[in-house]
Amino acid sequence: MNARLLPGAASAPGLAVLALTLNAFVWGVSWWPLRFLQAHGLHPLWATALVYAVAVMVIGARWPQAFGQVWRAPVLWVLVLAAGSTNAAFNWAVSIGDVVRVVLLFYLMPLWTVLLARLLLRERLNRWAALRMSLALAGAAIVLKAPGAGWPWPSGLADFLGIAGGFFFALNNVMLRREAHRPQEARALAMFLGGVLVAGLLAAVLSAAGAVPLPPAPRTAWVGVALALTGGFLIANLALQYGATRLRANVTAVVMLTEVVFAAASAVWLGKEVVTPHMLLGGALIVAAALLSALEPPHAA
Predict the structure, then answer these.
(1) Predicted TM-score (pTM) of this structure
(2) Residue 141 and residue 139: Cα distance in Å, rounded?
(3) How many beta carbons lie within 10 A of that of residue 5, not counting itself?
(4) Residue among 35, 98, 24 at smallest CA distance from 279
(5) CB 216 within 8 A of CB 43
(6) Exposed, middle or buried: residue 255 (CB in 10 Å: 0-12, 13-18, 19+)?
(7) What is the Cα–Cα distance from 261 to 259, expressed in whole angstroms?
(8) How far apart are the first and last CA of the chain?
(9) Which of 115, 198, 211, 284 has the fewest beta carbons closer than 10 A?
């Protein structure tokens, strides 16, 4: 995930909203090509590393100075780690788990953002932040609580990956706010580079341990889908940059929540998943927390 909630113009032109919706759509349905690649022997971690390697080459060809900018700014390597961990965790999770459940756990970002903003940006905890945290925690508890089970707790690898992905996405966004003075191309390269390094290193270690298969020999079927996914992620990132710089930050955040809708609809339609009432309730609380994060008035107490 390469989201950047940038403050922009006060107006909300339709084209900018459409661009952000396109970004949310690409990420909301990205689970399908990732599962296709996995079915053809390409593990999500290797797929992430491959897709982002192509994206890094495209960015490097367009902005060759970005490599030096990232190298000379050690703090951007925190962004490399955060963005890379986000993409590795999210892509792996939606490939093996319940898509709706993973996306909802990923959108616990308001909880993590409050804590990280307090730690890294010295933002104080106000009553709005406390309300967001309460809603997010309550929603997570409902989503994680299996019928007839005890305490709500992640039930498998996909749950842990979804939660971890949301945490690192929050760190990604906080770091982007903290380093907003850096050149845009340097920040973009750091995020894509993270996908290559984190996912690639983790895939290599797990492959050496025999836990993850090595990439298969190139074949037209999966190579074509991988290139299409690369193009989709690049277009989504450009759409995000276009839309987020032309809309207020709160409008951007609200539009980005349509990813939950796209993910749920595509999972039900293409993945034959079932959205249960308790998941709807928990998801409503998590989305409410995210909406409060977007709509919080300035200088709220």
Answers:
(1) 0.85
(2) 5
(3) 20
(4) 98
(5) no
(6) buried
(7) 5
(8) 31
(9) 211
- Model pLDDT for residues 2-35, shown as the tens digit of each residue: 544 344 444 447 888 898 899 889 999 999 999 9
Q: How many residues does the chain have?
A: 301
The total of other beta-carbon atoms located within 10 Å of residue 107's CB is: 26
Whether the CA torsion 8, 10, 16, 22 is positive or negative: it is positive
- Spatial distance between the Cα atoms of 206 and 153, rounded to a whole number of angstroms: 25
Alpha helices in 13-126 (DSSP H): 14-29, 31-39, 44-62, 65-71, 76-96, 99-106, 109-120
Structure tokens that stand for 21 in this block:
């919706």
**Hey, what are 214's tokens?**
């090595």
Cβ partners under 8 Å of residue 121, min gap 6: 174, 177, 178
Q: Give pLDDT tens digits for 49-94.
A: 999 999 899 889 999 999 999 999 999 999 999 989 999 999 999 9
The residue type found at 90 is F
Tens place of pLDDT per residue across the chain (301 aa): 554 434 444 444 788 889 889 988 999 999 999 999 999 999 999 999 999 999 899 889 999 999 999 999 999 999 999 989 999 999 999 999 999 899 989 888 767 877 777 777 677 777 777 887 888 888 888 888 766 666 667 788 999 999 999 899 888 877 877 887 888 888 889 989 999 999 999 999 999 999 999 999 999 989 999 999 999 988 887 787 677 767 765 566 678 788 888 999 999 998 888 888 888 898 888 888 877 766 666 555 5
Phi-psi map region of 148: left, alpha, beta (phi>0 left; psi -120 to 50 alpha):
left
